[in-house]
Every structure is written in structure tokens, then in C-alpha cells.
Amino acid sequence: MIICVGIGPGSLEYLTQKGQELIQKAEVVAGFTTVVDLVRPLFSQHAEVITMGYKDQVAQLEKTAQLHHEGKVCVVVFMGDIHFSGFQFLERVERACGHSVDTLPGISSAQVLASKAKVCFDETTFLTFHRRGDIEPFKQHLVHALQDHRNAIVIPLPWKFMPKDISFFLIEQGIDPSHQVEVWEHLTQREASWQGTLAECNRDFSDMSIMLIRTLHPMPSQL
């Protein structure tokens, strides 16, 4: 058996009970090192741990898949929720296994941010730039979302398209620089927040940051 598990935004308090049970029973736990380390206290003392980075993920996933095919109970852990920004990694897991795999959703940092900022997902567009490949279509989607008077929750692309780059890009595209912005870091862990406008968002943030851009024209409250 192999299953991909979203572990939530960082704190084990936000890990689902089902996710905890699967991790505790796993014979093999695999994932990016930073994600594995967050749930390491839950591992069975006999569990085999397979960590990876961006450069060796294909080889390490093939090793995990081999153990799965040998009959081991394998769990691959994902930060947050698999379906918010982990789909490309999920595709690599399935490619290594040679078949589709089961998934268990987790709580995304986007959901935590929406709760803290009191924004409704019905009125908010979520985008992640945390992906490989061409991000230009997603950049234009962000522009259109703001033009359509929607809030936007955005996961930046670490070190390449960060909050200050996003802000500069949007202003270049004609988006009003007075849009209110919030940037949160390490949600549910050692939290830090910044508030200002697009024009003022020119500082550096960590790779564990998430961004909210508020609409200038909120939609009428729903009945």
C-alpha cells in the first residue's frame, strides 16, 4: 500500500487524526526532508525513512515505489494539502509507482490564512506559483482575478517570484498599487505577519510565506 498524506501547514495540531494514524502505522515514510522532519515524532521506531530534495527526488521516489511493490506500507508526506500546491509532486509519486495512488487531504496554509484574515473563499482566488515550468499563465490569471474584484491568496515561488516580485509585477500590469496586502510566514509555527499596500511590499520574506491581496471593491455580503 502507498498513500500520499497532507500533513497541514506545520504544527502537528493541524494534522488530521487519520493522517496521524497512517503515519504512525507506516513501515516507510518518504518526503522532502523539511516535511518529514515535522512529523518525525510520530514515526514507528521500526519505520524506514526516505528523505529527498529537489535534485534527488526522482531516485528517492523510485526507491519508495520499490518498497511499496515489495508489500511495505508506505506513506509519502506533503506539506499542507496535496491538492493546493502538491499536484506536481503527486504526479512524480505516481510516475515512480506506475499507477495512481490514494491521497489524504490536509489543511492548507491558504485555509489558515483565510481564517485569520476573515476572507471567504467564494470571493477569493487561490493561486500557487510553487511549481515547475512556465508560470506566465498563472501570473496573468492573478491579474485577471484582481481586475474581477476578487481577493487573491498566493503562494510565491521561493526565491524566484516572491511577494515583492509579485507586487512589482502587478503594478507593472496596471493593478492599483493601493491594494491592501498581507504576508504571513510560518503559519501555525513561529508566525510573523506584515501588512501594507502593493506599493509598500518591497521587503524580503522567507520561503515559508503566503500572501493575501485584498480587492479594492468587496462583493456585497451574501444572504
In DSSP terms (H or I, runs of 4 or more residues), the helix count works out at: 8
The major beta sheet can be summarized as: 5 strands, parallel
Low-confidence stretches: none
Residue fraction in strands:
15-25%
What is the H/E order? Answer: EHEHEHEHHEHEHEHEEE
Looking across the biggest beta sheet, what order are the strands in?
A: 3-2-4-1-5
CATH superfamily of the largest domain: Tetrapyrrole methylase, C-terminal domain
**Which term fits the overall shape?**
elongated
Count every beta strand, where a strand is a DSSP E run of 2 or more residues. 10
Rounded radius of gyration (Å):
19 Å
Under the CATH scheme, which class of the largest domain? Alpha Beta
Number of domains: 2
Mean of the pLDDT scores?
A: 94
Shape-level CATH architecture of the largest domain: 2-Layer Sandwich
**Span of the ends, CA to CA:** 46 Å
Q: How does the helix and strand content classify structurally? A: alpha/beta
CATH-defined fold name of the largest domain: Methyltransferase, Cobalt-precorrin-4 Transmethylase, Domain 2
What percent of the residues sit in helical stretches (DSSP H or I)? 25-40%
